[in-house]
Amino acid sequence: MSALSASTAGDRAQIISISGTPIIIFDLPPSLTCTMTAPFRRLLALTSVLVLTTIAIYLYTTTEHLSTLSTLYSFSTSYTPTRRPLDLGFVSKTYVISLPHRTDRRQDIDRLMDGLQISDWVYHDGTYFNTTIIQDLLYHIQAQRMEEDYSLHSIINLPFSWPGDVDDSNSLALAGAELWPSQPTPDIPLRNTSLVCAEENFRLTRFSDQMPQWRYLTPQRVATFHSHLNAIRRVVDDNARAGLNLTRVEGKIQENIALILEDDVDMEVDIRERISVLLPMLPYDWDVLFLGFCWSNEANHPAVEDPYVVPKKNKLHPSFQPRCLHAYALSPAGAVRVLKHLRHEPFAYGRSVDLAIAWLILEKRIKSFTVVPPLVIQRKVTKTDVTVFGGSIWKEQLHEGVLGTKQSGDEV
Q1: Residues 323/293, Cβ–Cβ less than 8 Å
Q2: How do beta strands 121-125 and 91-98 pair?
Q3: CB–CB of 289/371 below 8 Å?
Q4: What is the pLDDT of residues 275-292, one digit of tens each?
Q5: Where are the alpha helices (DSSP H) in 184-253?
Q6: pLDDT digits (tens, 9 = 90+) for 243-275
Q7: How far apart are CA 217 and CA 197, in angstroms?
Q8: Membrane-crossing residues (predicted)?
Q9: Are the C-beta atoms of 238 and 246 separated by less than 8 Å?
Q10: Hey, how many other C-beta atoms are within 10 angstroms of the C-beta on 158?
Q11: What does pLDDT average to over the chain?
Q12: What is the DSSP letter of 114?
């Protein structure tokens, strides 16, 4: 601190420099100071000293603080976020399962992504049913059923147990049915009749031509299972390469959510606002979130409640038995758990993939939630590649779809 006296308009003034900042203090006129009592003058002097000391400390600490910050950060007039905003407010990446030749559906998906400003998304090529890989998988499925014997009963249960490593994020190498395409084709005959979809863990029913079409394990259904299994594997691999934590951590919210869509969907125009109300209600250990479903009363379980939030348009329910996989989100840990269940050899490919996941939910093998009413529906305006004997007549509705969908039609 330094001081310099100066005269200004006949009055005395002191110029005091504190941390390089000049401060001018005028002396009071003699006529005024003469009228002051001695105690008052001492109080005034003490107050001045305290004020000057406070200013000096503030300027010093501020200068030191800014100097320290300047060595740690590079200040600029504009701020650039370190991570891009999440699509739909919660999705890190979207995977759209689509057969390469379905350019009609891909054009609609392009419009949907543009309309919702979803930027981080990719097409995941689906598997064609009339390929050698699907034919080989059918042989492997039959090999898992070698003990199939209906001589005494029309319904049988084959030996079954679940894998024990579903929570082990360290064992992410290809395993189980994922290895079937690279293994020799089993040297066994296929049945003359269609394979029948398994139920529950490994319950089989003798074939009958009177069965409803969804009971037949057709090459188309095996191809759809393969498409979703590969898409989930891709999610797990992408998460692992990004160095994400792939296990549940008690009390910690799971981030880096993946969204898997099929290529015939439409979404509510305000899906971002609707889902933002529901996401805080999810527990830390959730695995799957269905944004769309079919053929199930997903309001069967009471809605999740929050003392601070009352959703007006959609509710969040623990999943009951949701069918259809046209729109579901996976947490990083959930993607691992679903993958390890679906690739389990006695369970893999033995039924429609949506029925497989519905059974995992019913058995509490995975923790799943469903948005009711759905935020995403199948449009059903183009020919399906899955069913053989006609499409689904399940009706779905949107309030206002991005692509203009109000209600889905009958699948063709």
Answers
A1: yes
A2: parallel
A3: yes
A4: 999 999 999 999 999 999
A5: 219-241
A6: 998 998 898 989 899 999 999 999 999 999 999
A7: 5
A8: 43-61
A9: no
A10: 17
A11: 84
A12: H
